[in-house]
Design goal:
Layout: E1 7-10, H1 23-32, E2 36-43, E3 49-51, H2 85-89, H3 114-127, E4 134-139, H4 153-166, E5 173-177, H5 180-186, E6 193-198, H6 204-211, E7 217-220, H7 227-236, E8 241-242, H8 250-258, E9 263-266, H9 269-279
Parallel strand pairs: 1-2, 1-9, 2-4, 4-5, 5-6, 6-7, 7-8
Antiparallel strand pairs: 2-3
């Protein structure tokens, strides 16, 4: 029996269907019925919290501030941490279809501020009569990137938390990161859920023990979610939520449902919602 409480997390909104981490992607995800909007944040030169996966312009999906394409060799020259938000906003990141997502509907779009996303999603959910939306906000940081592509962890986290507090979504947000430094700071905040993201580290218990505390959620790469790994996690860390990423194919979704995960993060929330409708 599949639990009716399993969550649909819309990865970067719905990257398989709309340009990633843009307002069209988030609003479409809400319309599709996601339970959680997942997004990534970086910091601009003028200390604005910008929704973007990379702390630079990705040439696969973005044009430069002059509306021109550029090569991968030039990508890190467009360092968002060195650009004011006004310049970042001039860069279109919606008219180039990501080559890995042929179903993606292209349209003009820019990298929005976190506050703009939260305001827009909250309004859209209210119009649709949806329950209060929840958010998974991934802080894109690393020790190598400190002061080069982003502020040091304390400042980075403070800027993000200020936006969550101002939007009154603090208690409905989970703070995600691969960077244990960010999560350790976030753990000091009452009512803030945390999620440790891991890619290829195994066994999972080692990653959690290295973190130094048990987060609210564990987010492994979906290929590492084997029956044995899930069973060990449930035994060693009862109550820890399990939400693998990024699950896009029907067979993988079915396999993870059978493992009784608490949710999945997907670029195609429409596919997962359809699967859930057929098995519940």
């Amino acid at each position: 029996m599949v639990s009716a409480c399993i969550e649909v997390h819309g990865h970067r909104g719905c990257r398989g269907l709309r340009p990633e981490n843009t307002l069209p992607a988030f609003l479409h995800a809400v319309a599709l019925g996601v339970d959680v909007v997942e997004l990534d944040v970086v910091i601009s030169a003028d200390r604005q919290v910008v929704v973007s996966h990379e702390p630079w312009l990705n040439p696969l999906i973005c044009l430069d501030p002059n509306g021109q394409p550029f090569s991968s060799n030039e990508a890190q020259r467009h360092n968002l941490y060195q650009l004011p938000y006004a310049a970042i906003r001039r860069c279109d990141c919606g008219q180039l279809r990501h080559p890995s997502f042929p179903e993606q509907v292209v349209q003009p779009a820019y990298k929005p501020l976190l506050r703009e996303v939260l305001t827009s999603v909250e309004a859209a959910a209210a119009r649709l009569g949806r329950p209060a939306m929840r958010y998974s906000v991934e802080v894109k940081s690393s020790p190598e990137g400190d002061h080069r592509f982003h502020p040091a962890p304390a400042e980075f986290l403070a800027l993000v938390l200020a936006e969550l507090t101002a939007a009154d979504v603090f208690s409905r947000t989970s703070l995600l990161s691969f960077d244990a430094r960010i999560l350790r700071l976030a753990h000091q905040q009452p009512q803030l859920a945390t999620c440790l993201l891991v890619e290829d580290q195994f066994p999972w218990a080692h990653s959690i023990c290295q973190l130094g505390f048990v987060p609210t959620t564990f987010g492994p790469h979906y290929l590492t979610a084997t029956p044995g790994a899930v069973a060990a996690l449930r035994t060693d860390f009862p109550g820890l939520r399990l939400v693998p990423w990024t699950v896009n194919e029907h067979n993988d979704m079915q396999r993870l449902l059978a493992l009784r995960v608490d949710g999945i993060t997907t670029d195609y929330p429409d596919r997962f919602r359809s699967l859930l409708s057929s098995v519940l």
